[in-house]
Amino acid sequence: MDKQTIVVEVVYALAHKQKLLRINVPQGTTMREAVLKSGMQEHFPGLDLAESPLGIFGKAVPKPDERVMQEGERIEIYRPLIADPKEVRKQRAAKAAEAAKARSAEGDS
C-alpha cells in the first residue's frame, strides 16, 4: 500500500446480520465518501448511505461529510431510532406509576 491511501473499516449491524468491511481509501477521504465507496449497500440494499447517521468507535460524528478519516479508524453506520427516547421514558414512567397506584389500592382493601 502506498502512502497516498489509508485503510479504514466500515461496519453496519442489524439484529440478525452484521457486516464489517475493510477498505483502502485515498488520504483526505471523508467519512461519507468512505461509506459510499465501501460497497455496504450490496449487503443491505435498503440502507440509505447518503443520509445515515455515522460515528467513529461509538461516538456520533455531527458532520460526517466534513470529517476526514485517519488510518485504522472504524466508521459505524447507525440505524434511525424507532421511537423517541424521551417519549419511551415518559410512557415507561406512566406505566410504573399506574402499577404502583394499583398495588397501593390493593393494599388498602
UniProtKB/TrEMBL annotation:
Q: Which Pfam families does this one have?
A: Ub-RnfH (PF03658)
Fetch the Gene3D superfamilies from UniProt. RnfH-like
InterPro entries cross-referenced by the UniProt entry:
Mopterin_synth/thiamin_S_b, RnfH, RnfH_sf
Q: Which family does it belong to?
A: Belongs to the UPF0125 (RnfH) family.
What this protein is called in its record is: UPF0125 protein PMYSY11_2690
**The species this protein was found in:** Pseudomonas marincola
